[in-house]
Amino acid sequence: MKKDFLSVKELTQGDAWYIFDMAQQLKGGVGSFEKPLSGKSIGLIFQKPSNRTRLSFEVGIHQLGGNAIYLGPDDIQLGSRESIKDIARVQSRYIDGIVARLFSHKDAISLAKHSSIPVINGLSDFMHPCQAMGDFFTLKERFDKLSSVTLAYVGDGNNVLHSLMYMAAIFGSNLRYSTPPGYEPVKEVVQDVQKMAEATKSSITYYKSPDEAVKGADVVYTDVWASMGQEDEHKKRVNDFQGYQVDEALLGKARKDALFMHCLPAHRGEEVSAGVIDGANSIVVDQAENRLHVQKAILAIYIGGKKKR
């Protein structure tokens, strides 16, 4: 039976470690001679323009021996020019897997439901699983134990925060978050991760004040205040998010030498100061690179059929 990668919620800790182990081998060049996607074609259905997601998936598919076919916003017009059901059923006859970067998570679920081939969520409004996997892989490279890491997230309670919360619950990490009123993460996600956190002794806590959330943290993370598709809200969001910028003063409340993370693209002067994102403790480029390695592992497992031995 085919498996989809739509959210990190479905992963066990063992699943996540298996992906990380394979990503580490691929990053180190071990097993690079293997081509699990040899003879396979992967469709990239993108409703949104992209830099890192498109490039990392196309490069990764090529390095694994596969053929990437990019289908941009005007190529398919998912759900308007043609129904998602028909697109999924027809593409299942042509290609071996789909990477989808969509506005709506419901569309990603529908695409997976009607496809007989694996669907990987490259991004949706509800989840950004490949980003969160790459982020925690990056943290694994920096810390002895993920269960000992305290990550503070300041900003919008969006798809990135949702996925980071699930990852923290999976690995037993501590996650503190501070969002402006009205921009909190989805209540069902909060309830869900709290249940998961009980099993792994993870602490996932909301703080009204960014200062309190960041105090003593090992890592400070933020994201743009207005994501793609929210351009009309930009002015209001800039006003609502005053006091939530990660600048030198806020980062200084974290532990000495605390790391800074951002999923990019970044708007210097809004959610983060130039001094922080371009500073010595910023690991945003490491995060971006590790998207490639983690996604290669996901592609190899979900589409290439690489199984645990």
Topology:
Elements: H1 13-27, E1 41-46, H2 52-63, E2 67-71, H3 73-76, H4 84-94, E3 97-101, H5 105-114, E4 119-123, H6 129-142, E5 150-154, H7 159-171, E6 174-178, H8 187-200, E7 203-206, H9 210-214, E8 219-222, H10 234-240, H11 248-251, E9 259-262, H12 274-277, H13 284-302
Parallel strand pairs: 1-2, 1-3, 3-4, 5-6, 5-8, 6-7, 8-9
How would you describe this structure to a colleague?
By secondary structure, this protein is α/β, with parallel strands linked by helices. It folds into two domains: 8-128 and 289-302, 3-Layer(aba) Sandwich (Rossmann fold); 130-285, Aspartate/ornithine carbamoyltransferase (Rossmann fold, 3-Layer(aba) Sandwich). The protein has helices spanning 13-27, 52-63, 73-76, 84-94, 105-114, 129-142, 159-171, 187-200, 210-214, 234-240, 248-251, 274-277, 284-302, and strands spanning 41-46, 67-71, 97-101, 119-123, 150-154, 174-178, 203-206, 219-222, 259-262. The strands form two sheets. It has a five-stranded parallel beta sheet. The protein has a four-stranded parallel beta sheet with strand order 2-1-3-4, sandwiched between helices. The longest helix has 19 residues, at 284-302. The radius of gyration is 19 Å and the shape is globular. 46% of the residues are buried. The model has no long low-confidence stretch (mean pLDDT 95).
